[in-house]
Specification:
Blueprint lengths: L1 E4 L1 H9 L4 H9 L5 E4 L1 H11 L10 H14 L1 E2 L15 H9 L4 E3 L16 E3 L1 H8 L2
Length: 137
């Protein structure tokens, strides 16, 4: 199953070791699941994770380590479709990635924008805890 993670959930995973967001991320890279990543989403991950406001909460090394794991494990996808569907145009990149990569799920912590769209074009948009509950056997 192909999975997309939004930046807010990745930040939560970085800020809180062994948290629900981090466990969801680790589940997403554990076969048969497959995290997918586009250049646009990768750039946003890097931009958001290394904002100075997070320096006092989590080391740069931890953030880089998480990015390294994501970069190594993720399947790279080129966007083949432009999407303009979210109230926050900055989140359209996640919808485009999910659509281009045939993802089954977008994992998000964005209640106001992405989560309110569940389901979107047959793609589930779930909170990290809901994704974990869905995939636990």
């Amino acid at each position: 199953m192909k999975i997309v993670f939004d930046a807010s959930t990745l930040v939560s995973a970085a800020l809180k070791p062994d948290s629900i967001p981090e466990r969801a991320l680790l589940r997403a890279i554990d076969p048969p699941n497959r995290l997918i990543l586009s250049p646009e989403v990768d750039a946003e991950y890097r931009d958001v994770l290394f904002r100075a406001k997070f320096d006092r909460y989590v080391s740069r090394e931890r953030r880089q380590q998480l990015l390294d794991i994501v970069s190594y494990a993720a399947e790279r996808i080129e966007l083949v479709e432009t999407v303009r569907a979210c109230r926050d145009p900055n989140d359209d990149k996640y919808l485009a990635l999910a659509l281009s990569g045939s993802a089954a799920i977008i994992v998000s912590s964005d209640i106001q924008h992405l989560l309110s769209m569940h389901p979107w074009r047959g793609i589930s948009i779930l909170r990290p805890a809901d994704y974990l509950a869905l995939t636990v056997n």
